[in-house]
Design goal:
alpha+beta; OB fold (Dihydrolipoamide Acetyltransferase, E2P); six-stranded mixed β-sheet; 8 helices; binds adenosine-5'-triphosphate
Length: 362
């Protein structure tokens, strides 16, 4: 469903009756020489979905997006959009809006002319072009800046224009390549809200590449975590964070305590699968003074005594490193009024719910 200008579509929208996903990667491989930047990648993106590709540098995120945009061609496999192979469709005919990290606005055209460009390419008449530009400028809160040149805009404003330009022709698919990478933190958060709002309003199928985990968690319906050209895990943000399948995903997305041979977690749990490590998120561990009592563990909770090694204050959060034997356990708690603060050397009890321990592939 497209929220923008439903009455006067620029082109035939892909029918909703075909039952195909918006985007399909079928066993796609992309080689650079002998090196596989993307390996046997299969992935479906549903209509209207916001899917983010996340992964460390060099894992193949951008290559995957460039294959979808048509700037690169796969060596093997097929990419389908609404059920039709696009292997032989050049990038400019794929009808996708694209936003890059470096805004890529035409520097010699003012904002309005930048926005009109994709409409001109599609043969839209001047009157309708102006009306569409007015509407989209209003939508991205830039109505007053239509006659400015890109160099007279802030980074955030330029990125808004880039987003507006990607959306103005009402494409069925939007591709975002590190769209907020060049912005500072506050502006990034503001723009995340903006992108989320636009996605909801336009209902546009969106594929975003980022290495910003927070951005991925905030914006996405689903996240794909890539590792060395392959998909490591695809899931909703909650599932990915709460139930990572591997140490790689657990450590890449957020902070994780990983224990390989720890007596105090692993041996107590008979459900541990073979060849796995125990993982618990730092915010799932509670910290309290060691009151000297010999509190027994229960079926639900487990506890252990340790010594504070370090305390890091980070605004709303406080992070402790607690030494337990040869292990260093990270504990993270939200700062609250009246809370006890522990210092290096303090003896503390840390405890957690057994059900918060995950066993993940090493
Ligand atoms: P980043 O987060 O750093 O942008 P990425 O996950 O987007 O990384 P890609 O840009 O997709 O990674 O690159 C994947 C791998 O393919 C990297 O090892 C990269 O060096 C290699 N690669 C990408 N483009 C080319 C090219 N044109 N020629 C040779 N190798 C390439």
């Amino acid at each position: 469903m497209h929220g923008y200008d439903k009455t006067t579509p620029l082109h035939d929208k892909p029918g909703n009756d075909t039952g195909h996903p918006a985007i399909e990667f079928r066993n796609v491989t992309k080689l650079y020489g002998q090196f596989a930047a993307v390996s046997d990648l299969s992935l479906n993106v549903a209509r209207g979905e916001f899917l983010t590709i996340l992964g460390p540098s060099g894992s193949g995120k951008t290559t995957t997006l460039m294959l979808l945009a048509g700037f690169e061609a796969p060596n093997e496999g097929d990419i389908r959009i609404y059920g039709k192979s696009v292997s032989s469709v050049p990038s400019y005919r794929r009808d996708q809006g694209i936003v890059f990290q470096s805004y890529a606005l035409f520097p010699h055209l003012n904002v309005r002319r930048n926005l009109e460009f994709p409409l001109e390419m599609r043969g839209v008449k001047a009157g309708e072009r102006a009306a569409r530009v007015d509407r989209i400028l209003d939508r991205v809160h830039l109505s007053d800046l239509g006659y400015r040149m890109p160099s007279q805009l802030s980074g955030g404003q330029q990125q808004r224009v880039a987003l507006a330009r990607a959306l103005i022709a009402d494409p069925p698919i939007l591709l975002l390549d590190e769209p907020l990478g060049a912005l500072d933190r506050n502006l990034r958060e503001q723009m995340q809200g903006e992108i989320k709002g636009l996605h909801k309003e336009f209902g546009i199928t969106t594929v975003c590449v980022t290495h910003d985990q927070e951005e991925a968690l905030t914006l996405s319906d689903r996240i794909v975590v890539m590792r060395a050209g392959r998909i490591e895990q695809t899931d909703s943000p909650e599932a990915l964070y709460d139930r990572p399948i591997s140490r790689f995903v657990a450590s890449f997305l957020g902070e994780a305590n990983i224990f390989e041979h720890t007596h105090f977690i692993v041996e107590s749990d008979a459900t541990r699968p073979a060849r796995s490590v125990a993982m618990i998120r730092p915010e799932r561990i509670c910290i309290s003074p060691d009151d000297g009592s010999t509190r027994a563990d229960s079926d639900q909770r487990q506890s252990v005594i340790g010594t504070v090694d370090d305390m890091i204050y980070a605004g709303p959060l406080r992070k402790y490193h607690v030494r337990v034997g040869s292990d260093l356990v990270i504990v993270r708690e939200h700062v609250a009024s009246g809370q006890l603060v522990f210092r290096p050397g303090d003896v503390v009890r840390i405890d957690w719910l057994r059900s918060d321990v995950r066993f993940v592939a090493p």
